[in-house]
Specification:
The protein is mostly helical and 295 residues long. It folds into two domains: 36 residues, no CATH class; 182 residues. Helices cover 78% and strands 0% of the residues. Helix 6 packs antiparallel against helix 7, helix 6 runs parallel beside helix 8 and helix 8 runs antiparallel to helix 9. About 13% of the residues have low confidence.
Amino acid sequence: MENNVINEIKNLKQQVVPRAEWVSSTRDFLLQQIATDAASEKVSVGMTGYWSIFNQTFRQRMFEPALVMMLLLVSFVGSSLTINAAFYSLPGDSLYKVKLALEQTHVALVTDEEKKVELKMEFAQKRAVEFDKIVAQSDVSPEAKKKKIEEVVKEFKNNVAEVNTHLSKINQEAPEADRSLNVKMALTISEKTEELAKNIDKTTSNLGEVDKKELEGILAEAVQSVQDVGLAAQQLINDAQIPAGDQETGEVQGATNDAAETPETGDANNTVQDETKTDGATVEEVVEQVEPAGN
């Protein structure tokens, strides 16, 4: 019985022949299993791979409110720190150009000519302060200090020249009704130009003899530019004076004309405030004298 079963199995083995497709698919399956079980090799991800992972992760969280607020805060704080650092920068510093650009932007946003004059005078005063700080520096070489002084004096002259330009424009375009305001502004400008001239003279005296000699030309030009603004302010006042029928006003006008013709260089900015004081008249009184004529 047993032998018969064995013989039948042998006969069955010889009769059963597997299909070629089945043999091929089975072989591929076995090879895949072998490859999976084999030891895997280490693959280097590289910077591109890391960036791809970071980009995918960051993109998922980018629009979360907390992250957006953090980015805005970092941007605001960073901008504030940069502007603050630029504010205290001096010629030669990397942020000094940023400081000048911010000043020009400020002026560009102002439409009123009188406000522009005030801003330009304020910037000129800042240049004078920078000049003081540079002269006081002891940790820089003479060559570097000279270069910084040349740069700050150049910017100072630019600011003062622009004040002069705006004053001329105001004098030509301002209506009669604004004469008293123009006089008040011109008197203020004269006071400030006198201050600037004195500050430049005082700071220049702290320079060494060699530096004084080398910088004599540009410093003289700076003082001359201040004098020009003082004369422009005088001219604006003269043009706004009451006609010569009023004796008191005539005295004031004569005093301002004398001030405009004074050729002094060191004190060329003896302001209209001093020159227009006739018989104890103050700046306010000069303005009051001009106001009735505009009415």
